[in-house]
Amino acid sequence: MFSSRLHWDLRPNRISLALERVRATGTTILDLTESNPTCAGLLYPAREIVSALGDPRCLVYEPTPAGSAVAREAVAGYYAARGTNVDPQRIQLTASTSESYAWLFKLLANPGDEVLVPRPSYPLFDFLAQMEAVRVVQYPLVYHDGWSIDLDALVRSVTGRTRAIVVVNPNNPTGSFVKRREVEALVTLCRGPGIAVISDEVFADYTFGPDPERVSSLTGIEEVLTFCLSGLSKIAGLPQMKLGWIVIGGPAALRREAVAYLELIADTYLSVGTPVQHALPRLLAAGSQVQQQIADRVHENLAKLQTLIGPDSAGQLLQVEGGWYATLRVPRTRSEEDWCLELLERDSVLVQPGYFYDFESEAYLVLSLLTPPEIFRQGIDRIVAEL
After folding, report:
1. Is residue 245 part of a domain?
2. pTM for the whole structure
3. Residues 126 and 165 both lie in one domain
4. E strand map for the chain
């Protein structure tokens, strides 16, 4: 009696079952998968955040489909502080990046159309696309002393039903940014058939060193219809505030039409709360303190990981340019799942297997650099001992 879009197997996997068993024993687990900044031991400016939500204007409901002017101007200010000029009229507020994807799939695709997404990458794409009756087609990222888009494979992935190409910049979990030549190739590929580009930039503020070839944001692209996504969840460590946004770019006529249709979609749902919109300028200011703590944390943990996983280790730390995650290649003496189960059941260390992110081969472990440093150090020590 339920929709065919909800066809997933809801049974827990072996790692989830093992985690339940270990927790039931009362064993302290070193969780190296922590991705929730509000549970990662960070110090939040609580008074500023709470007071920001006490604006009396919240008592009046004035629905604005694209988002309130004050909120969109605050988003434009966020980009201006990073050297990018974004007209507030090009900004569409949403409740989250996931909702942004859902609205863009509605905007761009008919049932059965295709969106191209990177592999490995964010594991939620299949769910988001399937719920919109859209088909996901993966294109590969390849690793040769650093990650890059397999441009030949990307070209081969395009069909007559391709409506958008998604880039995650930096990628989750590989931490790789798109480079100038890749953006140029992407624009050339999309211009002729009228394919849109969706750039997920939620981790763009977290970088590990400069790179002149890196493109940190696609907001300046004018040749093809482009949608750049971000929000409070990552840039301010405030996922509970439920506010994201889309910056619409591209040729003027197409951009205006996209803005109008997105406002129509938004007007249908009106999902963004009034309090968070009025609070946004202050939340962004307060969130900058949280962002700095996160940046310090991920830098510290990455440096520790680079020290402990040296050239003589049986594991290999893959190059990472930004974001909150690191990837460790481990010997194929057992499957990724077995590596995770061994570490959990014998060493009380929780990590994620690469197949959660659709790595094309084995064996990879994905570690969260957001983990509190002492827990991270203990967990890595135990992984090194296993290696």
Report:
1. yes
2. 0.97
3. yes
4. 30-31, 91-94, 114-119, 135-143, 147-149, 162-168, 196-200, 226-231, 244-249, 316-317, 325-329, 349-350, 352-353, 364-368
7 assigned to some structural domain = no
271: closest CA among 245, 232, 236, 235?
245
**Is 51 inside any structural domain?**
no
Torsion of CA 127, 131, 137, 142, to 10 degrees: -30
Tokens 């440096």, located at residue: 303
Find tokens 């002149």 and name the residue. 212
Q: What is the pLDDT of residue 114?
A: 98
Residue where a domain stops, chosen among 283, 315, 345: 283
Angstrom distance (rounded) from CA 91 to CA 292: 25
Mean pLDDT of 15-40: 97
Domain that holds residue 358: 14-43+286-386
Neighbours of 37 (CB within 10 A): 24
- pLDDT tens profile 67-113: 999 999 999 999 999 999 999 999 999 999 999 999 999 999 999 99
